[in-house]
Structure formats: structure tokens, C-alpha cells
Write a structure and sequence with these properties.
Blueprint: H1 2-11, H2 17-53, H3 57-62, E1 67-72, E2 85-92, H4 95-100, E3 104-112, E4 125-135, E5 138-147, H5 157-167, E6 180-187, E7 190-199, E8 215-220, E9 228-230, E10 236-239, H6 246-263, H7 277-290, E11 299-306, E12 311-314, H8 344-349, H9 353-372, H10 374-395, H11 415-438
Parallel strand pairs: 1-6
Antiparallel strand pairs: 1-2, 2-3, 3-4, 4-5, 5-7, 6-7, 8-10, 8-11, 9-10, 11-12
Helix pairs in contact: 2-10, 7-9, 9-11, 10-11
């Protein structure tokens, strides 16, 4: 009994000397932890601020890209994807034009955009001008997306996919491909890094010009637009045009569902009476070659119904920033193995011999040009390199883990090494694709 009592007394902080020592040790450890945490934060802040202090406007313009300035009313921070903030937009092509004030200027409003990308430190934006206006030679319009590509350390993946769609796999565009221009961006006079201004995927003049009663859908797993539905085969669709009455949406939904029904027939040999074979083939090759994770009918898969031809067309292509070996998920970083033909509509089309024959013929028709197109990656990266380097002074992504990450990211501490990773991946993927398609 005494032994038990003495044990209890020993463990009581008020009376036991050893317990007092343990208590003081824990207290000092907690203080040390707090001190180390504060010190770490101070070091990170110092590195961040010192990086930004190296970036002058002369240096930014010296990178050779146009510079865009966005000034929100009252310098309000952009915190919402739903609520707009009034803003002034100014674009200057060089330092002299900036000094002289000879830029392109618009009044409009801005809000956040994106899904996963909106959660990152470097934010994507959506801009709407009060009047239709051109941006850096692109046709006049009101709506523009301002994309940061923080997920892509090479900064070239999406541009390369768009280049392929506009020069080789042109059937994916439906007669239109979103144009883009890289810029360095200032938001409320704070340097925000390298961005890309893209035309918005939408129907209308200077965009997707479809006949009357045509419509545009997008595969959208979040179903967060005005008009959404899940098909009978559980594909999540959103109507791109929000400004339509319910009756019109229901009619368009019915048309899209009837086309899906044809794709899933046990004998789908007549499916090309309802879908455009050339666009579905080109979209497949481009998406399969890039092994784009989102193209598995998860997100950003656009398709347009043409009311005159009564057919559905795949495209335009959009959102390839984690393609070309850019994602660690589901072994997407591997340059081997097929991806697109395992999911939803393309899994069903893969049962169709006519479709596979068309894929094989189109591959052999285009593969030499595809191999030559790797030079675009190198050329574009050389233009972007100075801007990418100062972008990393702000956001510190090179050599560091971020979503999504790929094997070897710790060793790739320079922009050049990230570009070389993409080039090496494309070469290996090309060899695998050639062997795979030849085996069909």
C-alpha cells in the first residue's frame, strides 16, 4: 500500500521533484518549438520579400513579354469566384510604352475562377470588359481567362496542347481554337508572376461560331454551372451557355443523351451517323498522347452539337496543365500504357473497329509532324525562361513539392530541367504510342 501511495506522490507535480523537472522540460520544449516556428516563418518571409525586392519593373519588361496591370477598385483583394470587383486593365508591350502611357486600357470587372487551382497561392482570374476589346492582337471580346499555370513548372504544357490542336489535330477545334498570350502580371501594383491570357470557350462572334440552335456542353465533375445533369452512364455534363431557358436546356440535354445511347449500344457500328468521326479521332490521339488526366471524362472535355449537320463534335481542347507527365496520380507520369480508352465514351468507341482503324490511319498520317512539334516546346520555353525565373523568385516552386508532383521533382531545381523533363517524357510517350497503335 505504501508503495502505491509513494508512486502517486511521485507523479504529482506539486510534490515530486522529478515530476517538476518533467513539467519544466515540457514547458521549455513548448517554448523552443514556438521560437523555432517563429524563426522559420521569419526566414520564409525574408526569402519571399528579398525575392520580390529583386524584381523591378525594368527587369520585368526586360523579360520580353507584354505586361498587364490590373487595378481593382479601392485595391480590394479578389477573394471570390462569384462576386465581381470593378477594375482597370492596362496592357503594355514594352517598357517605353509603359513610361509613355501608351498601352491598351479597358474598364471592367474581375473575379476568381478555377476549381483546384483556386485553392493555390497563385490565383487564376476571370475578367469581363465593359466593352468588347482585343488583347495583344487577339480578336475583340468581353470575356477573358487569366491563368497562372502554377501546377505546371515548365509553363508550356497547355500552350503545347493548344499548338497541336491548331496545327496538327485541327479537327478537335470545331473550326475554332482558343488563342492565348503570355504576360507578366501586376495586381494592384504587386508583381504576381507569369500568367497566360486565354480566350474564353464560348459561343459567339470571334469565338465558337455555331449555327442557330446549336449548343456546347462540357464534362464537368463538379456540376457547378447553371444547367447540369448526369447522363444515364453517369457522365457529368454542364451546358456552357448559362443564359438559356429551362425548356431549351431540357431539349439540348435530350439530344446529348440520345447520342450517348448510340455510343453505348452493343452494336454501335452506326454511331458515326451521330458523332463526327474526325473530331473524335483527333481529340483521342491528342488526349492519349498527352495522357491528360482530365480527359478521362472528368473535367474540361468540351463538345459541340451542330444543328445543321446533326452531329456532335469533340473539342475545343482545354486545360492540359497537368498533362505530358505532369501528374503523380494514377501513374499518369508514366509514358507507357493507354489512358483515355479506358473510360466512359471512349471505352465504348474502342469496341468499334471503324474507330480504331481511323485512329491508326490518322496516327500514321500525323506522327512525323507530331515528332517535329517537340521543337515548339523548346522554342516557347526559351521565350518564357526569363519570366519563369522571376516567377519562381515570388512563388518558389522549382525543386519543391506541390500538387501535383512527379518523380524527381526535388532534383529539378531549375526551369530548364523542368522543360527537359517534358521533352524527355514526350519522346518516350511517342515511342510507346507508335508501338501501341501499330499493334491494333
Amino acid at each position: 500500500m505504501n508503495g502505491i501511495q509513494s508512486g502517486i506522490i511521485f507523479l504529482t507535480p506539486q510534490t515530486g521533484k522529478k515530476a517538476d523537472n518533467i513539467f519544466m522540460f515540457k514547458k521549455n520544449s513548448a517554448r523552443l518549438y514556438i521560437y523555432l516556428l517563429v524563426l522559420s516563418l521569419l526566414i520564409v518571409s525574408f526569402v519571399f520579400v528579398s525575392g520580390k525586392n529583386q524584381i523591378t519593373k525594368e527587369r520585368v519588361f526586360g523579360c520580353g513579354l507584354p505586361v498587364m496591370f490590373i487595378e481593382t477598385d479601392g485595391e480590394k483583394k479578389i477573394r471570390s469566384k462569384e462576386k465581381y470587383i470593378g477594375a482597370d486593365f492596362s496592357i503594355f508591350e514594352n517598357y517605353d510604352s509603359y513610361i509613355d502611357g501608351n498601352g491598351t486600357k479597358y474598364r471592367g470587372k474581375i473575379r476568381g475562377r478555377g476549381n483546384t487551382t483556386w485553392t493555390f497561392r497563385k490565383k487564376p482570374y476571370f475578367a469581363k470588359f465593359n466593352i468588347r476589346g482585343g488583347v495583344l492582337g487577339m480578336p475583340a471580346a468581353q470575356k477573358w481567362t487569366i491563368r497562372p499555370f502554377m501546377t505546371d513548372k515548365s509553363k508550356v504544357r497547355d500552350a503545347y496542347a493548344t499548338f497541336l490542336a491548331s496545327t496538327i489535330y485541327t479537327n478537335t477545334s470545331g473550326g475554332w481554337i482558343p488563342d492565348f498570350k503570355f504576360v507578366n502580371l501586376y495586381l494592384n501594383n504587386n508583381f504576381s508572376g507569369l500568367y497566360c491570357i486565354y480566350e474564353k470557350v464560348e459561343q459567339g462572334e470571334n469565338r465558337i461560331n455555331l449555327p442557330k440552335d446549336s449548343f456546347l456542353f462540357v464534362v464537368n465533375s463538379r456540376l457547378n454551372k447553371e444547367w447540369n445533369f448526369r447522363s444515364k452512364q453517369d457522365v457529368p455534363f454542364s451546358l456552357v451557355d448559362n443564359d438559356v431557358p429551362e425548356e431549351k436546356f431540357l431539349k439540348e440535354k435530350e439530344i446529348l443523351q440520345s447520342i450517348e445511347d448510340q455510343i453505348y449500344l452493343q452494336d454501335n457500328s452506326k454511331v458515326f451517323d451521330f458523332i463526327d468521326k474526325a473530331s473524335f479521332v483527333d481529340w483521342y490521339i491528342l488526349s492519349e498522347f498527352s495522357k491528360n488526366r482530365d480527359s478521362d471524362f472528368m473535367a474540361s472535355c468540351y463538345m459541340a452539337f451542330n444543328s445543321e449537320t446533326k452531329k456532335l463534335y469533340m473539342g475545343p481542347v482545354w486545360d492540359f496543365d497537368i498533362a505530358f507527365g505532369g501528374s503523380h496520380m494514377d501513374n499518369n507520369f508514366s509514358p507507357e500504357d493507354s489512358w483515355i480508352n479506358k473510360f466512359h465514351w471512349y471505352k465504348e468507341l474502342w469496341r468499334n473497329d471503324e474507330f480504331k482503324t481511323a485512329v491508326k490511319e490518322r496516327w500514321h498520317e500525323t506522327k512525323s509532324r507530331l515528332k517535329d512539334s517537340f521543337g515548339y516546346i523548346l522554342e516557347e520555353s526559351e521565350v518564357l525562361a526569363p519570366s519563369a525565373e522571376i516567377d519562381d523568385l515570388v512563388w518558389r516552386t522549382l525543386g519543391r513539392k506541390q500538387w501535383p508532383h512527379t518523380p524527381g521533382y526535388k532534383k529539378r531545381k531549375t526551369y530548364e530541367s523542368e522543360v527537359n523533363y517534358v521533352l524527355d517524357w514526350c519522346n518516350k510517350r511517342y515511342e510507346w504510342m507508335d508501338s501501341f497503335i501499330n499493334s491494333l
